[in-house]
Amino acid sequence: MQIGIVGLGLIGGSLGLEFVRQGHQVWGVSRQPQTCQQAEARHVVHKASTDLFSLAIPTLDIVFVCTPIGLTLPTIEQLSQILLPSVVITDVASVKGAIVPLASQLWPLFVGGHPMAGTEQQGIQAAQMDLFQNRAYVLTPLPTTPPSAVDCLAGLISHLGSRLVVCDPFSHDAAVAQISHLPVMLSACLLSSAQGMPEERRKLAQQLASSGFRDTSRVGGGNPELGLAMAQYNQPALLAALRDYQTHLQYLTTCLEQGEWGSLSDLLTSAQQSRPDWIDPHKGKES
Ligand code: NAP
């Protein structure tokens, strides 16, 4: 296939590496000339340019918009002036409700997408092979989305080794608020509270910090622009998840204040028992 990718960072670059490896013809567009040079040098794409008009290719089949979230709709609007009507456009943004209905108005062959894969790194240097292996890749078509466009994207995704999940954009946003956006915020607060310790105690704690703190602080220590955009574009669902979490935090506080060790033990036991339902060790890398 002839594939365009706009935004050659962690996600766009990792998709490019896979598509080139699979023998597709891949055309990239990114903001900075040095990113384009690196993308060509690393075989992330066959050809890269800073000019979106370079995607005005008569044989292009599909374009992946992999820019920061806030640029997704403006990019689709610009693409709508350039592409032939037969081209499928998809995005990879971590929020869907704020994007999919508007993007579908701009481009009938638009299919919302979200690969549930990532690292705390960003930019072309963070692009890696096999990022999407064994990970969920969500598609959020509307009832009006042409099935042929969904099938085109689903075919490509199946070759990434991803698990295809289809749901509506707003169900997606409620689910990722709980399992992705809330953990980013809580992890950032954990780092912020640790950073606020008195200097001497903090220095000791930093020396002692090991795997537990590395795991719990990882997502909060990632790309701040992405975290901010998750909150801005998924505000209602994130607030609902945060308020529910506060109820649990209050319960935990009461257990501790009143020495209700039986209740605390029940909470921790239930957490241990339920974790495999959320994190299947056979799913591979954690995101
Ligand atoms: P990223 O590593 O920062 O990559 C975004 C890239 O977009 C940058 O490298 C930048 O390229 C490029 N860009 C910025 N403005 C542009 C413009 N006007 N035109 C063309 N390219 C432009 O971010 P990312 O983590 O890949 O995130 C990209 C998208 O993936 C977001 O929508 C995010 O929600 C989604 N996503 C992220 C994750 C994750 O864990 N990180 C997971 C799933 C989905 P230059 O280097 O040229 O400036």
| Helix count, DSSP H or I runs of 4 or more residues | 11
Judged by helices, strands and strand pairing, the structural class is alpha/beta
Indicate the percent of residues in helices: 40-55%
Quaternary structure state of the chains depicted:
single chain
Distance between the termini: 29 Å
β-strand number? 9
Order of helices and strands: EHEHEEHEHEEEHEHHHHHH
Arrangement of strands in the largest sheet: 3-2-1-4-5-6
Q: What share of the residues does DSSP label as strand, in percent?
A: 5-15%
Low-confidence stretches: none
The overall pLDDT average reads 96
What does this structure look like?
Helices cover 50% and strands 12% of the residues. With 287 residues, the chain is an alpha/beta fold. A 6-stranded parallel β-sheet has the order 3-2-1-4-5-6, with helices on both faces. The protein has a 3-stranded mixed β-sheet with strand order 7-8-9, with helices on one face. Helix 4 links the parallel strand 5 and strand 6 (110-111). Helix 6 crosses helix 10. Bound molecules: NADP nicotinamide-adenine-dinucleotide phosphate (NAP). NADP nicotinamide-adenine-dinucleotide phosphate binds at residues 6-12, 29-32, 35, 66-69, 71, 92-94, 114-115, 118, 122-124, 126, 223, 226.
